Amino acid sequence: MSDSLINDLVNPVEPFLRSDRIPHIWCPGCGIGTTVNSFARALIDSKIDLRSLALVSGIGCTGRVAGYVKLDSFHTTHGRAIPFATGLKLANPKLNVVVYSGDGDLSAIGGNHLIHAARRNIDLKVICVNNLIYAMTGGQTAPTTPDHSTTSTNPYGVFEPSFNLPHLVEAAGAVYVARWTTFHVRQITKAMSEAFQKKGFSFIEIISPCPTLYQRRNKMGDALDAMKYYKEKSKVRHGAPTSEVGMTMTGEIIVGKFVDRERPDYQTMMRAQYTESLGERYVEEPEMVCDCS
Amino acid sequence: MAKGRVSIVVERCKACGFCVEFCPTRVLALSSAFNSKGYHPPHVVHPEKCSGCDLCGMYCPDFAIFATKTDPVKAGGDK
Questions:
Q1: Which of A67, A194, A247, B12 has the fewest CB atoms found within 10 Å of its own CB?
Q2: Domain count for chain A
Q3: What's chain A's average pLDDT?
Q4: ipTM
């Protein structure tokens, strides 16, 4: 049987998992589990009080993360992870709210919520696992699918231009924007720890392999081939202009921390505006205390 | 004396091969044995080379492998 049970060593990620639900449903070689490893290490490194942390995810392969982590997690309706998270943050401003979802959920079905949360600079940490396709529903073209790749809805090749997510969220107003691939596990951990320190809308895009749908249809090999491609073709360019970091099917992947800036967040702006307009008459409601014990 | 040791939960493994490929000191190889789901889990071929960096644990998408640094005092006491 397992070696770990014999010598009571414990995987560092184990305390963050609902072990009874493991093994998970993700395909062999899917990168989502790797991002969960990095997320667990980031939680350990940043010493966040887990009782002040909430994880919200939408629908899709990445949306399953909410079901596998042993945190206060919330599996919401399709595309609406950010609205649920916004409500959570506004009702209880002390919470650290993490949105953990996929590219289809965040940028297609929930695209409007993504740009408006970035515009308002709501204090959310958004982790977007981008596998370049709608994976759970059978490999349809997503807004992030690169040109000329084959999908089940574009059997002769994708001809629509794809979204460049870092550019989109920077233009909308995010304060922290980074992109890494699942090959860069330590860098993802560091980026997540940095995002936890940041006040405002932080966005981390993680390019992840999808061996079952994206790679298979495009004859790009298995997940290990994808990881080797990330290793070979990714170029770290911190502070690169996000307009230049678009993805192509087989070209370079520009990774790094693109944006790290300061902007007042939604609640700071709200307080400032009300104080300016109402002066003495503006009294903040006492903070809601939820005694869940 | 190895600086670390690898622990493998074979029943969780889906044989993606990330740990074998990205181990910096090449400690692992996919074994020819099957687990109950029919995958070939990795096994340790060079235990003495393990540095305990836990990169295998960081890459494993199935939470099936991890490495720990060996405590030199404790390891000496065992023998």
A1: A67
A2: 1
A3: 92
A4: 0.89
